[in-house]
Design brief:
Blueprint lengths: L22 H10 L14 E2 L11 H9 L8 H13 L4 E5 L2 H12 L5 E4 L4 H8 L4 E4 L20 H11 L6 E4 L12 H14 L3 E4 L3 H11 L8 H10 L3 E5 L10 E5 L2 H14 L10 H14 L2 H20 L12 E5 H4 L9 H13 L1 E2 L1 E3 L1 H4 L14 E5 L7 H15 L8 E5 L10 E4 L3 H4 L10
Parallel strand pairs: 1-10, 3-4, 5-6, 6-7
Antiparallel strand pairs: 2-8, 7-8, 9-12, 11-12, 13-14
Helix pairs in contact: 1-14, 2-11, 3-11, 4-5, 6-7, 8-9, 12-16, 14-16
The structure holds ligand F0G.
The site of ligand F0G has 15 residues, from α4 and α5.
């Protein structure tokens, strides 16, 4: 008999205690952290939804795999097991390990980008954009219009706008060394890209002799969305869908910290022999010999096992159900989120939730602080704090003011998520009392990591008493 309850398809063998804190303690700690959640000690966070990157729980098989790690400098058997596991899903000619995703991006962009170059994508993740711009090239986002509308229900809001891609390739194709697609589209809300869109992008790339690369951090979640939502894929295995996705690409960059279920690692994989030779030379300069690329042999083993586990459909069903569970509960509470719910995170639309706080008073930062004070939950602002500062030092509001709650893989159970929902219930009732923030100190770049803030009305942070599950 089919059951309605989707359970975590694992048991827990090893646990990490969570240190519970009181609201009064959290008020003090966030003040000491200058209201920047990156400055908190992670021990002082009860539920950490800052990122799904590098925060996965490894399986018993992965931990066992660590003991198989061979730490030979060159030609380690662990490398060959890693390469085989990658090629089983992504049959590219060359597989080049790196310490994480952005290292693969830097090496690739170092080869193909530079002044006068344009690199289009659905939406570049910020490290990809930064690695492109660091060479003097231009990073162009061409996501479909629905991708800009938080509450528009669309099955594949991560798709690239093929008309705009075609126009760019026709007008300036000679300045485009490759096209990228981020699957799923993290910056746009963890939204998937359809197989038809990947195929369409590849057809345009072929017409113009330009290779297609996938930024594939969350490839398995993307494949599961295709299985659920795209006509003709319902009875395909996720593994077959993954293979098809990559069969339309000429290369990929990967952060193994997401859908390889490990805490560190990445790779660059591609078919182009000359680019691969140059990439390996660069790798030796900055990452390490091509059979370890900045990783230990044991890390490569953990990736090899993680890649087999990630395409397990019971896991993916649970993964999607748990993200959706949080998103649907928030929707029921009247909290506006990017819809439909994405794969790895729920994105709250703080501009709609807190219309009394103007974008440049950072509504999503205000919500992030309030959520921490209420229940010790840490999310991340993706709005004008992150993107508002312009190169000339002026400020412009970002496109959206979002608070991302990213769900680490296999880490939290349903009661942890119920606790998050209860905290929101408490928060929604007093949302009109939340105040804006000012930045009192900031570095010139990537200010969100280290900026200091001050609440515009300090009382607004400190006046609530009825947080759930107080430890003292
Ligand atoms: N591409 C995407 C789509 C990402 O989400 C990330 C990382 C990277 C590339 C870079 O990979 O961190 O291994 O160097 N995203 C993390 C996040 C940091 O929180 O979304 P990395």
């Amino acid at each position: 008999m089919e059951m309605d309850t989707i359970i975590e398809p694992f048991r827990i063998k090893s646990v990490e205690p969570i240190q519970l804190t009181s609201r009064a303690e959290r008020e003090q700690m966030i003040q000491d952290a200058h209201y920047n959640l990156f400055n908190l000690h992670a021990d002082d966070v009860i539920i950490d939804l800052l990122t799904d990157s590098g925060t996965s729980a490894m399986s018993a098989a992965q931990w066992a795999g660590l003991m198989q790690g061979d730490e030979s400098y060159a030609g380690s058997p662990s490398y060959f097991r890693f390469e085989e596991a990658v090629k089983d899903l992504m049959p590219f000619e060359h597989v080049i390990p790196t310490h994480q995703g952005r290292a693969a991006e830097r090496i690739l962009m170092g080869l193909v980008a530079g002044p006068d170059v344009k690199i289009p994508s659905n939406t570049h993740f910020d490290t990809t954009r930064a690695n492109i711009e660091a060479t003097g090239a231009e990073a162009i986002d061409l996501v479909v219009d629905a991708g800009h509308v938080p509450d528009e229900e669309h099955p594949f809001k991560g798709n690239i706008n093929l008309d705009r891609l075609e126009a760019l390739l026709q007008e300036e194709g000679d300045r485009v060394p490759l096209v990228m697609l981020t699957v799923t589209n993290n910056t746009g809300g963890g939204q998937p890209v359809s197989m038809a869109n990947i195929r369409g992008a590849k057809a345009l790339c072929n017409e113009h002799g330009v290779p297609l690369f996938l930024d594939a951090c969350r490839f398995a979640e993307n494949a599961y969305f295709i299985k659920q939502r795209e006509d003709g894929y319902g009875d395909h295995s996720v593994k077959a869908i993954v293979r098809e996705m990559f069969s339309h690409a000429d290369g990929m960059t990967m952060s193994a910290k997401k859908d390889a279920l490990v805490n560190i690692g990445g790779w660059l994989a591609l078919d182009h022999d000359t680019w691969a030779r140059k990439a390996r030379n660069q790798l030796i300069l900055t990452e390490g010999f091509p059979t370890y690329g900045g990783l230990a042999g044991r890390d490569l083993e953990a990736i090899a096992v993680g890649l087999q586990e990630i395409v397990d459909e019971d896991y993916l069903e649970y993964r999607m159900a748990s993200t959706r569970y949080l998103g649907e509960a928030l929707t029921d509470l009247g909290v506006p989120i990017i819809r439909p719910v994405g794969g790895h995170a729920v994105y709250i639309d703080a501009k709609s939730l807190l219309p009394h706080i103007p974008p440049l008073d950072y509504p999503a930062q205000s919500l992030a602080v309030a959520l921490y004070v209420t229940g010790g939950i840490r999310g991340v602002e993706i709005g004008s704090v992150m993107f508002g500062r312009q190169p000339d030092g002026s400020e412009e509001p970002a496109d959206q003011e979002l608070l991302r709650l990213a769900i680490p893989r296999r880490v939290y159970t349903q009661s942890h998520v119920d606790y998050v929902i209860e905290c929101f219930e408490a928060l929604v009732g007093r949302k009109d009392a939340l105040c804006g923030y000012e930045i009192t100190e900031e570095p010139p770049q990537l200010r969100h990591f280290t900026a200091h803030f001050r609440p515009q009305e300090p009382g607004a942070v400190h006046h609530e008493t009825d947080a759930p599950a107080e430890a003292s």
